[in-house]
Amino acid sequence: MKYILSVAILALTNISPIVNALPGAYSPSYTAGYSEAPAVTSIPSVDFACGYEEENVRIWVIKSGFGNPEQSANLLIDSTFGSIFVAGVMCHSDFCEGQSSPLYNAGKSSTSVNLHKKEIFNLGDERIVKGDLYRDDITAGSIKLHSEMFAKAFSVEGFPSHPNYAGAFGLNPIVDSSDYTDKITYNSAPGYSYSNILERADNVNRSSSTFSKAVDVRERKKDKKDVNKDDNQNSNKRSYNSEMCTFSLGIDYTLVYKIGWLSLPTCEYGKSPFWKTDLECVKINGVVDLKFTNTLAEFDTTVKDIHVPHGDFEKIHQGLKATYNDHIKKYVFKCCDARDLEISFKDHKVTLPVEDWTIKIDRLGDHCAAKIAVSNTTEVPVSRWRLGTDFMENFYTIFDRERAQTGLGLYHGQDPSYLT
Known about the structure:
6 helices; aspartic-type endopeptidase activity; seven-stranded mixed beta sheet; signal; Nuclear_transport_factor_2_euk; Pepsin-like_dom; 38% strand; Aspartic_peptidase_A1; mainly beta
């Protein structure tokens, strides 16, 4: 998936492979008032391996650099967090001592500024970060942040002891408001100062972040009759790397022909209001039909699967007549019993074909397991579905600060039934 800085916070897009192969101008139809695609010459972005898995959890990690001369550090993209932190040389937590690369040393950077202030960040689910606040230059791909505020962590608890990342790049805006539906304000607490981007692209909506993936839509369109023939021809000319994603600061309108905007939820926000929306219904034809009230769908980049409350998990697997396989530690069912997964939000409905929410677990392809897990979060509210990276990789995903909305976009050539 990809992250873009613009009116959104996260957009998943494949910049290089797809853009270079685009046949020319499109005349897309956008929802929410977009009538035409603005010209985009270049958008600050960074590519990363969206297929990376740590302890069977697919997470999004970007390569970044701090200071001058640059000190390398991998950062976890975190849609539940509102700031940036990196492990510092004075940190002796298991998380820090388990790093394979050197920790950030402010004394070795000519551009570091010590703000002489300590901060404690509660990232939820017992993840606590304590650090000193600094400013320094941060780079990731073509993304360049000048004198960006972040925490140089001296204590990191609740994270894996030997991670593939040394910190987190948070996407969740810090807000200060008692009524999110009528008034949304951003305070000056540590977070993004997007105006500090050194290299700016023309016509980029800088309040948005986007994720995109090099999606090969050809296999998905084999049995679809309602896909535009031109899109079929265009997709056949392209080459895709399904394991690479892009995080961008802005929206690349040349990649998408439709965007569905999801409004803020009207039920309990929990600790952070973004990036969530109301969940109304989940349906698998002939298997299960779940109706919800006061339930959230949260777009969570820190989990791989769709994480659901225990009761919903049981109802889905009972409907699939699934049995627990002790060897692989998963519930298994006949692949032929599965149907498309329909998830209805307040504003839009998305439909995932069977192959996008299940995985075959035998050579013959007779038995499957669902990419659905029980949510073990202790954060309030517990009644929420956490839509992880496996879900978001099916769309051009946008986190929009200015609109205070998440957007899901369809790529050119992608079946329109995915988003209605």
